[in-house]
Amino acid sequence: MSSSAATERLRRLEECGAIAGYAAVVNPEQLGYPLLAYLWLRYPSSKYEPLHDLLAKTPEVLEAHHVTGDDCFIMKVAASSMQHLERISGRIGQLGSVTTSVVYSSVLTGRELLPHVK
């Protein structure tokens, strides 16, 4: 594909909103956060402001998703150590029951949905 064709394709994807922005991909391990975990929170309330406030103050929570099922929220967390993860889990656990799963290894990360573009 020529440079001009690639530029035109990017322009069209930006205009239709398919490309929402550009960002640097940061390696948490290189920043001192070698531990990755998922926390499942069973949140007993329908008032989400306390959770949203806690998430705003907890930069180690990389993602948080409201989901169906018994556990209302799933969070992706980066930590510097098991003790650090335990402190984060403890803070979140003040809002409800938490289950923690530590990631051994990641076989697929950062995949973006790329539709076939003509």
Automatic annotation (TrEMBL):
Any Gene Ontology biological process? response to amino acid
Keywords of the record, alphabetical order, are: DNA-binding, Transcription, Transcription regulation
Gene Ontology cellular-component terms for this entry are:
cytosol
A Pfam family annotated for this UniProt entry: AsnC_trans_reg
Protein name, entry field: Transcriptional regulator, AsnC family
| Organism superkingdom | Bacteria
Every HTH asnC-type domain range: 1-34
Give the GO molecular function terms: sequence-specific DNA binding
InterPro entries in alphabetical order: AsnC-type_HTH_dom, Dimeric_a/b-barrel, Tscrpt_reg_AsnC-like, Tscrpt_reg_AsnC/Lrp_C, WH_DNA-bd_sf
Source organism of this protein record: Renibacterium salmoninarum (strain ATCC 33209 / DSM 20767 / JCM 11484 / NBRC 15589 / NCIMB 2235)
Enumerate the Gene3D superfamilies for this protein.
3.30.70.920
